[in-house]
Amino acid sequence: MRLAVLAFALALLVQGCGGPDPKDLYLIALMGQSNMEGRGEVSELPPDFPANPTKIWNFTNAYRWEPAKEPIDSPEGQVDTVSTGRRGGVGPSLALADAFISAHPSTSVGLIPCSRGATRISQWLKTDAKDQRSTLYGSCMNRMKTVSLSNGTVRAVIFWQGGSDGRYEEDATKWKERFTTFVADLRADLGNPDLPVIMVMLGDPPVPSRFQYWEIVRAQQRAVDIPGVTKIEANGYERRDDGIHFTTKGQLAIGAALARLLPAP
Question: What confidence score (pLDDT) does residue 208 get?
Fold first, then answer.
């Protein structure tokens, strides 16, 4: 009984202080469409995952710091309606944070999810909208700037997007140009001209495919040559039956691979 009362009192204390406020985190922003948002089944996660639960934090879509758990990009309590997803699932984010901490045990990681399924690269461009939080770019930028300096600084951005651009020829042929603009604006607005960006490239097209320009997008992604932008192939990881989305097993493997591309703390 005493323990229950103590736990309740501690919960009230945390709520009264506005929730947890983790310090000195290695912050990673997570942008893109459905695979970054996550489509893996939470029920299929290994029982011992993650291995470093006390060192991974999530700045949720509800603008609250919480100990990280799947789904990282949960729509629950989401503040910015522009990025509200239909459902949350297992993506690569928690796995990459866990693997990174295993390699760098003195580090704690903060995740900033802001993906949205079925979005095209044009929807990720900065606009002159009066309400910047009504745009995907502005919403994500607001989250990155909302976290305090004491929480940490954004050390890298993961961008996994491109499938939706495979439906339309103009979107496909302009992918590289638009991505280049996206990276330049991102770095300028964060005041870091060397901000590392890791791009997950499209894998082989699904069969049968509704995305007739998928291969053009892949060619555009392969042609990207921007200093500080690292690319990783999505082929070789387990996908769901639709041929587009990755299973929980595939997402955990991609996350571990992404962790190896992050700059050292």
Answer: 78
